[in-house]
């Protein structure tokens, strides 16, 4: 339904998918950590009826580049997505971010509030500090990417999915393959080391209170990765926010409750 495209933006080759209703309002979809545009595969068919969609693979994930030259801070990722939209001649849009993608979305709202109509935060990360100094120093060691590879391999893709999905029956072959595909490229592990090094931490309470964009927050009550308490704090600190809680739902709300997520987004716009 969406067409895969690539663009050279902010010094990196960015992969994104575009489609849906070309005459409608644009929603930019931003995935979470260790994920890609694949995580929105269940939600996109619903959104595509009413919205024009850009789903971006945030570097170094998915099919976007994993270069050593890119600065993998949240601020720079937000800059990169905003420049992509400029090149696509999209002047006004909304942004939906899942997990880590929620922090990128919030950074975009701070940087270009005049361009963003609404924000949708799906189990967004929040209030996480920057990595500790000894972890940042360790990321410069030559063997550190190998350590990351072995660390992730301990639980594997299936283990990671079990931690983010409440209903384990949803985990099937296509889901496992879709989330595992990007790790076939060995360049992702040095890039993840740089992400740990460059990530500046989540936005402060003071920064959150500056955001005037209306925000819809959607959370699962069984989220083990970003607990509901984070969603409640964000709903208090963002000036114009509404929190919706899904029962019997984990962290991966776009996969677990795509129809309900779409209905909440549609209601938010109507």
UniProtKB/TrEMBL annotation:
Gene3D superfamilies: alpha/beta hydrolase
Segments forming domain AB hydrolase-1: 26-258
UniProt lineage: Bacteria, Bacillati, Bacillota, Bacilli, Bacillales
Originating organism: Siminovitchia fortis
GO molecular function: hydrolase activity
Keyword terms: Hydrolase
Record-linked InterPro entries: AB_hydrolase_1, AB_hydrolase_fold, Epox_hydrolase-like
Protein name as it appears in the record: Alpha/beta hydrolase
Zinc-finger as UniProt keyword: no
Domain of life: Bacteria
